[in-house]
């Protein structure tokens, strides 16, 4: 940069162009909302990146699921949890 000159401003949106077409909204609704697949799984099925899937979900206004992982304890029998196993002594 030459002394006394201001740095050139970057153009808005001058980043990397998208690497393919975004998935269709109908397909995303079916795989994500109805079938409950993860963004990573959808990317593998549709042969595109998980980032592209996530951007498409956001662009289409599809409500994203929370990142909470459910405990496996809900699948166990309550009685089994209340009566712990005892070792034979």
Number of helices: 4
Task: Give the radius of gyration.
Answer: 24 Å
Count every beta strand, where a strand is a DSSP E run of 2 or more residues.
Answer: 0
Mean pLDDT: 78
Helix content: 25-40%
Distance between the termini: 81 Å
Shape: elongated
Structural write-up:
The chain has helices at 25-34, 39-46, 50-60, 78-82. Helix 2 crosses helix 3 (50-60). The model has no long low-confidence stretch (mean pLDDT 78). Helix content is 38%, strand content 0%. By secondary structure, it is mostly helical. The chain has a domain at 20-62. The chain is built from 4 helices and no strands.
Which helices and strands appear, and what pairs or packs with what?
Blueprint: H1 25-34, H2 39-46, H3 50-60, H4 78-82
Q: Concise description?
A:
The protein is an all-alpha fold. It has helices spanning 25-34, 39-46, 50-60, 78-82.
Task: Based on the model shown, name its key terms.
89 residues, 4 helices, 0% strand
């Amino acid at each position: 940069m030459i002394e006394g000159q201001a740095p050139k401003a970057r153009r808005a949106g001058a980043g990397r162009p998208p690497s393919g077409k975004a998935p269709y909204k109908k397909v995303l609704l079916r795989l994500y909302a109805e079938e409950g697949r993860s963004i990573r799984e959808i990317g593998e099925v549709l042969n595109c990146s998980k980032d592209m899937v996530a951007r498409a979900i956001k662009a289409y206004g599809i409500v994203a699921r929370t990142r909470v992982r459910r405990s496996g304890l809900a699948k166990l029998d309550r009685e089994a949890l209340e009566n712990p196993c005892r070792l034979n002594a």
